[in-house]
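Collaborator request, handled under Task 6.
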Amino acid sequence: MKRRTIIIIVIAALAVGGYFGFKAWRDAQAAAGTTYQTEKIARGSLTALVGATGTVRSNQTAVMAWQTTGQVGEINVATGEQVKEGDVLASLRTSSLPQAVILAQADLVSARRALENLQESEINQAQAQFNLAQAAEDLEDAKDKRASKDYTRASDLTLEEARTNVALAKEDVNKYEEIYDRVKGLDQDNTSRLNAYSALLAARRTLARAEANLAYLEGGPDPLEIVQADATLALAQAKYDDAVREWERVKDGPDSDDIRAAEARIAAIEATLGLSSLTAPFNGTITEVNAKIGDQVNPGTISFRLDDLSRLLVDVQIPEADINRISVGQPVTMTFDAILDTEFNGEVIEVGRVGTALTGIVNFEVTIELTDADERVRPGMTAGVNIVVNQLEDVLLVPNRAVRLREGKRVVYLLENGVPTPVDIEIGAQSDMVSELLGGEVKEGDLVVLNPPLQFESGQPPFMR
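Structure tokens returned to the collaborator:
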């Protein structure tokens, strides 16, 4: 009994001590309330930003290198000089160039003359017309010769002449046979007998030739003659078709394909000649000169850098969590470590459509154009970028310093009887200093604590931990 009484007395003492301790703590906090920094919940404007860093670059950059060997003979520009597209920046000494480049000048003269002749001369048309007429004539001859192989070898008149020759030859043979019969009994070496026999032999040979000629003329062509006639006709037809195509190609003037081919040849030669100099590919400023007169250069030797500084751009990487808040046309503010106390303006001009993963983080490239850059801003400088993604007017604002995370919820602390008391809130858009207050047990005019003690963030007094 005595032990139980002692326990009850100890518990009662602790309870009384806890009560007076808590009361003392609350009184101490109330007494210290004047040390808290507070700010009223008020309406105002909010500019929501997405921050990033990037490097300034020019709108367009070209690094110019030689494409042939040689010795620098002339340099026409210096660093910082403005140039226009096509301006010759430097050239090589002609005597130091490869032979192919030197001879290209002569080839260019010939190529241009050939193009002029092609465009202005009427020789090609006249020649094509002549060739077509000649091919047509040859084709007709070939057709006639091939058609003749379908009949006898000669006309009726020629056949009649051949038959007459055969009849006359036969009469001569009969006549000389009668003469020979009268003297054939004479001695073999008799002159009359020998003359008569010789005449007979000649008559017989003449008859044989006449009969053979008649047989040839009365017969049809042999297979070889037909094959030869067909081949001659096919060749004549092919030449005629070629002549027709050529005439169609040039009858209305120079062929466009020939003109393009001649122009391409000139362009190729000019490109070869262009190896002897470096020209500006666009309007810009010479930002680097890495050559001197007399330098020996080789293919790939870099001598100049050209930048178009009329537009300065900054490329920044935006995390995937923020990329859908970025759009073309949004205003941007920028600062540079190298340019103190000056803020520059810009505008989003391009938003990447494909992200790039690096160490597990996906970023999208966003390009910004400076709209008020001056000569102090240079390519290569690092820019601190703030993209304005939202601009709100007349909304309730809560200072970011007052917002805490308590048990997974956002809260602010209001002073009740001098003691900071947590109140749940809901926030929307945020900027560096304030956030949009969307809801919660807070209203306009309430004082929120900017510097609540750390112990309040757990929601328990120190002695209860």
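The cover message to the collaborator said: "The longest helix spans residues 2-31. The two ends are 34 Å apart (CA to CA). Please let us know whether this matches your experimental observations."
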